[in-house]
Amino acid sequence: MTSGVHFSVDMKKLIFRVIKFVENEKTGLSIPLYNCNARLVAMLGISEGALLKLKKELTAAQNAEEQEYRPPRLRSQSKVRPVSKLKRRSSSLGLSSAPIVVPEPEPTKKRSGRVPIKLLEQADSEIRFQFHALLAENIYPNTDYLLERLHQLHNDFTVQSKTTLRRHLHRIGFSYKSNAKVNEIAMEFKVEIVRLPVRHCCFNPIELCWADLKEYVRKGNTRFQLTDVRELAAQFIASYDGDVATKVIKRTQEIENKFKIADRYIEENIEPMLDGEESSDESDVVSSNDA
After folding, report:
1. Is residue 260 part of a domain?
2. What is the 3-state secondary structure (H, E, C) of 206-248?
3. Which of 175, 176, 172, 163 shows the shortest CA–CA distance to 126?
4. Are residues 205 and 161 in the same domain?
């Protein structure tokens, strides 16, 4: 009767470390499961460099075993034809008997779908005319009314669907522009909306306030976290009282006055000089023609 397997002292130490590590994992994970290298280092009690070397040796041994047990490739059985004696022939006969291979062009790919409809200039002008005619009759010129009007007047009109008509309207130059709800509400309460010029944010106090907010967050954001940005923005908004808002409005008014002074100077001093030069040039041309 066998007494069992005998282990060396080093092997027992290694096994004891593994048993102790596994028993400690019952209460909870000390090292995450995805961190395999750290778990193996804790189990075996070796350095990470030694672990990486062992892993390389393991992969090399596995590759060697796969190559040993890989079945040999079977060669394809091919019949060897006996070499026949070739007779000499004249060059003219050899050239004439050689087949001439003419490359055939690839067939063109047929596009699926409907053939696009091309309208003449008369059809385009008719679409424009009927569009403006509906406007003159106080009828909203949508694609339904416009297509119905065109088919009533012209039985052979080529456009049959609203999608095709909409595509031709865009090609001609008509584009749908939705009205903003803000404009409708402003008209209802008789409020005038001031539209600021494009790319002139210095006239808008809100844009200046937005620039101050970004500058405040940029200076205070040292950890580059979204929570810090939210807290800094809340601090800035809480400290932005009426006095600061009044100063921002005054600053925009000062910038507006600078632009007005510059425009007035151009209108009073520079534009009359340009008009005088144009009139003198015209008089010179008239005198030369008279001569």
Report:
1. yes
2. HHHHHHHHHHHHHHHCCCCCHHHHHHHHHHHHHHCCHHHHHHH
3. 172
4. no
* Residues contacting 48, CB < 8 A, separation 6+: 37, 41
**Domain membership flag for residue 238:** yes
Sole residue written with tokens 């200046």? 208
Residue 188 placed within a domain = no
Residue span of the structural domain in which 36 resides: 9-67
First CA to last CA across the chain, in angstroms? 140
Whole-model pTM? 0.30
Q: Do residues 198 and 246 share a domain? A: yes
Q: 208 and 273 in one domain?
A: yes
Quick check: is 113 in a domain? no
The count of structural domains within the chain is 3
> In tens digits, what is the pLDDT along the chain, a chain of 291 residues?
445 667 788 778 778 888 888 787 777 777 777 777 888 888 788 888 888 888 888 888 888 888 877 665 555 454 555 555 555 554 444 444 555 656 666 666 666 666 777 888 888 888 889 888 988 888 888 889 999 999 999 888 888 888 888 888 888 887 666 667 888 888 889 888 877 766 677 888 888 888 889 999 999 888 888 889 999 999 999 998 889 889 988 998 998 899 899 989 988 888 888 866 655 555 555 455 555
Angle value at C-alpha 281, between 277 and 284, nearest 5 degrees: 140
CA dihedral defined by 9, 10, 16, 22, rounded to 10 degrees?
A: -160
Q: Six-digit token pair at 162?
A: 């609203």
